[in-house]
Design a protein that fits this description.
heterodimer, A: Porin, two-stranded antiparallel ribbon, 22 strands, 51% strand, B: alpha/beta, four-stranded parallel beta sheet, 13 helices, globular
Chain lengths: 466, 416
């Protein structure tokens, strides 16, 4: 099997999703914060989400609180081919991203808690129709077959952070916090393998013998998991009664994944004609020709696989300004160190399956967030915000797995103190990504079309205080 | 009060500053599609055009095919005029096989017997020009049958699909079909037994296969199409009239080079209008056989061309009639099929016949020994005496454009 066939397999494992944050990051870990565009570094919401946004925010948080929330992410997008003008739509399901925070004040100055959130992950799903429909015995039409399925048609990543955290009020003006997260991560990735890219002999591909581009002959499925540790630290300085400055840093986390790569043969519908350049008898089914690839020991036999991905460290710095008794304005700057996602090495236990080393060359990203809150009454708070961030993927790695780019996002939110003990938050976020050129083939082919992406996020959170 | 005023100013300032920042960074930086430059679709009907056929449609010339000749195909020219993206299964140079440099000495452009398919910069999502050299009507939907004339190019172009299967993958909005020439051509060019009627697909078989082929096309519901009639294979410069040999031998063609002294032409090859009872104007001689006799004579060995029925290499009058009759009957069926579908129809024979009135376009007698660069069969045909040259492909594209525009009221622009 040619090395390039594994290129896409490697990509699957490394670049798993289309997400509302930079790169494959997620930033919607609290409905209250989401409503004000994620601004929280200097003044986290009082729902325990400070465990992620700034552990220092736990300092001085009174009582015992249990907060649970979910953000429903409905992503839409498409890829349009330069030459044919054909467009294929993203087929993502609505994806729930949950969060859970429990905090308890052990003294007026010391609060501890634990949070569960997903700062890296999510899913992309494109059409999976193969060129040949073996059920009907016919060939699917161009609008039915997404050309990028050989780089990845369904990619999932979950990196769940379980983070015990403490917050301490050093002085009336200064709070600090520290959390240590246990990271559990799982990847589940599917792609097709294109027969035309394979090599029946050294230096010759099936495409050069006439096999059509986009001939599905195998389904590759990778499942792997791993774990790691990350540290999250933060501080908040209450400059005066109106102004607070805060920041937090969450460390990078290198996860060593181990799992399996399985391959299922897909019918091609190809039958060799007489006098073919392979020298095989006319009428030979191509499926019979490639079947040995899937046998034990063959390059497409099931095998164990390992790799390593580093979830990048991220840093945010923010200012909160209590403009009036009712109005609060917040600004955050965030930086994510995506440069750590520079290369991806993929090792297969099967000696017949070549290992892979892929260049990703992600770039660090900056994001700016603006948020505001308006306390309509003691029980009702309105929120709004806007954020902009850069894209992490360089031009050469904008693919179906993560057609990511710079984004403008707009948010609104509502907080409702339903009772002295129960608080509810609602948030909505619209994502509008810059249209970005990208590819559906090997990197050597380059970008051949345009990716569009947008998203609608709806969040709901409940906090119980007692 | 003063404090409240100050606060209002702060809020106003803050809001203005915030809005300014938002507007500043919110500006979109969209990248754009990069369609092929200058490509404007003439009509939505041509969004995906598939051409089916044989060597002519594929772009076979001078006994070979490569990316250069493929891009000279009438189908490519027509697609360009339609403004539609059109992918051909381009072959590397020098070709598969490479082109003749001298057909009389069987010399070709040096290279391997068959070069591989080109690795195109952007892998084509499908192939629009699905035509394969050697294809008969049956081959359109069956590559495996021995009668389908499958060859290496069948796999190089279609990779295990039939033409109809590749067409299915494209889901064409418009198709052109020029098939059937090879159902009769093999008889005309058979040097061992010219006009061998066993090599002519019987009309009933032809029509049944043609209908089956069209059924497979109908199944994908193209918005339109054009059917092209079978070319009159007796009119190609591969064949010369026996009377032409006779006239040349007898010095009746002013300016023509003399034939070798040891070469003789029987009087039965004279035109019947000159020598009653002779048949030279209704006998056809393939250039390989004629060339063989001339070569023998040039070597000083007596060689005689006879136009008698007993000579298997020539195409006797009765055989010529069979060939022409088959073509006419094929074409009657093809024309009916086009009419039944409301499709365009083009009979290339009048246009090809008109080329005979153009000086140097169609050589009545090959320039034996001349290199391909000298157009030994005339400028309208390539150096195998069978396949159209680039200029004739252009003529075909022009005529097809006219037929399509007339049928559908479309406005495919003129073909440059």
């Amino acid at each position: 099997m040619r090395r390039s066939a594994w290129y896409a397999v490697g990509l699957l494992l490394g670049v798993p999703a289309l997400l509302p944050g930079q790169g494959f990051g997620v930033y919607e870990h609290g409905t209250c914060t989401m409503g004000r565009a994620g601004t929280a570094a200097a003044s986290p919401c009082a729902d325990g989400s400070a465990i992620f946004f700034n552990p220092a925010g736990l300092g001085g948080l009174s009582g015992t609180r249990i907060s649970a929330g979910v953000t429903m992410i409905a992503a839409g997008g498409s890829f349009t081919d330069d030459a044919t003008g054909q467009t294929w739509d993203l087929d993502n399901p609505v994806i729930p991203v949950p969060n859970l925070y429990i905090t308890r004040a052990f003294s007026p100055k010391f609060t501890a808690g634990i949070g569960v959130f997903v700062p890296y992950g999510l899913e992309t799903r494109w059409g999976d129709a193969a060129a040949y429909d073996s059920v009907s015995g016919t060939f699917n039409t161009p609008d039915e077959v997404f050309p990028g399925r050989f780089l990845g048609w369904n990619s999932k990543l979950q990196s769940i952070y379980i983070q015990p955290t403490i917050g301490f009020q050093v002085s009336p003006r200064l709070q600090v916090g520290l959390g240590v997260a246990y990271v559990i991560s799982k990847v589940d990735l599917k792609q097709r393998v294109d027969l035309s890219e394979q090599s029946p002999q050294a230096g010759v591909t099936f495409a050069q013998l006439g096999v059509p581009t986009g001939t599905d002959f195998a389904q590759a499925h990778l499942e792997a998991d791993g774990s790691s540790i990350a540290v999250n630290v933060g501080a908040i300085w209450q400059v005066n009664d109106r102004v607070a400055i805060g920041g937090h840093y969450m460390s990078r986390s290198t996860i060593d994944y181990s799992g399996t790569a399985t391959f299922d043969q897909i019918q091609t519908g190809l039958t060799l004609a007489p006098s073919n350049p392979l020298g095989l008898p006319g009428g030979t089914p191509v499926d019979a020709l490639v079947a040995p690839q899937f046998a034990a020991g063959g390059p497409l036999s099931n095998t164990d696989a390992t790799t390593s991905i580093t979830m990048p460290d991220q840093f945010s710095l923010g200012v909160a300004f209590q403009a009036t008794e009712r109005w609060k304005v917040l600004v955050d700057w965030q930086m994510v160190m995506w440069h750590v996602f520079d290369k991806l090495d993929l090792d297969f236990a099967n000696a017949a399956t070549p290992d892979i080393s892929l260049n990703e060359e992600y770039k660090n990203t900056n994001g700016v967030r603006f948020g505001m809150e308006f306390a309509q009454s003691a029980t009702l708070t309105f929120r709004g915000g806007y954020l902009h961030h850069q894209g992490a993927a360089p031009a050469q790695t904008v693919t179906p797995l993560l057609p990511e780019g710079a984004r403008n996002e707009f948010t609104v939110g509502l907080g409702w103190q339903m009772s002295p003990k129960l608080h509810a938050d609602f948030g909505y976020q619209y994502i509008r990504q810059d249209d970005r050129r990208g590819r559906v083939f090997d990197e050597t082919v380059g970008n051949t079309g345009l990716y569009l992406f947008n998203g609608h996020l709806v969040g709901l959170g409940l906090s119980l205080t007692f | 009060m003063e404090r409240q005023s100050h606060m209002r100013i702060s809020m106003r300032t803050l809001t203005a500053a915030g809005l300014g920042l938002v507007l500043g960074v919110a500006a979109c930086n969209d990248e754009q599609l990069a369609p092929p430059p200058g490509q404007v679709l003439a009509d939505p009907m041509f969004a995906r055009y598939v051409s089916m056929g044989n060597s002519i449609t594929a772009g076979f010339q001078s006994g070979g095919i490569n990316a250069a000749t493929q891009n000279q195909s009438y189908a490519v020219l027509l697609a360009d005029a339609m403004g539609t993206t059109f992918y051909a299964p381009l072959m590397n140079l020098p070709g598969c096989p490479s082109l003749y440099t001298n057909v009389f000495t069987q010399t070709r452009v040096p290279g391997p017997p068959c070069a591989l398919r080109q690795s195109q910069a952007v892998p084509p999502p499908y192939i629009n020009n699905v035509a394969v050299p050697g294809a008969v009507v049956l081959s359109i939907y069956n590559n495996v049958d021995p009668a389908a004339n499958a060859n290496a190019l069948t796999t190089f172009f279609l990779g295990g699909l039939t033409q109809t299967q590749m067409m299915q993958r494209v889901a064409p909005t418009f198709v052109s079909i020029w098939i059937g020439n090879n159902d009769v051509l093999g008889a005309a060019t058979n040097s061992a037994n010219g006009g061998d009627s066993a090599l002519v697909t019987p009309v009933a078989t032809f029509t049944a296969r043609y209908d089956a082929m069209l059924d497979s096309v109908d199944a994908v519901s193209p918005q339109g199409g054009v059917l092209v009639a079978v070319a009159n294979v007796t009119a190609i410069p591969f064949l010369s009239a026996g009377a032409t040999y006779w006239a040349l031998k007898n010095g009746l063609v002013p300016g023509a080079p003399a034939l070798p002294d040891s070469f003789f032409v029987d009087n039965n090859c004279a035109p019947s209008t000159v020598i009653p009872g002779s048949r030279g104007d209704s006998v056809l001689v393939g250039f390989p056989y004629g060339g063989l006799l001339l070569g023998t004579a040039t070597a000083g060995v007596r060689a005689t061309l006879s136009c008698a029925d007993t000579i298997p290499q020539i195409i006797a009058p009765a055989e010529v009639i069979k060939l022409v009759s088959a073509v006419l009957q094929y074409n009657a069926h093809i024309a009916g099929a086009a009419t039944a579908r409301g499709w365009a129809y083009w009979d290339p024979n009048p246009a090809f016949d008109s080329l005979k009135t153009v000086a140097g376009a169609v050589a009545p007698f090959p320039a034996f020994g001349a290199p391909c660069s000298a157009n030994p069969f005339g400028t309208a045909f390539s150096c195998d005496g069978v396949h159209p040259s680039a200029s004739t492909h252009h003529l075909g594209a022009v005529k097809l454009r006219e037929a399509i525009n007339a049928t559908y009221g479309t406005s495919i622009p003129a073909i440059p």
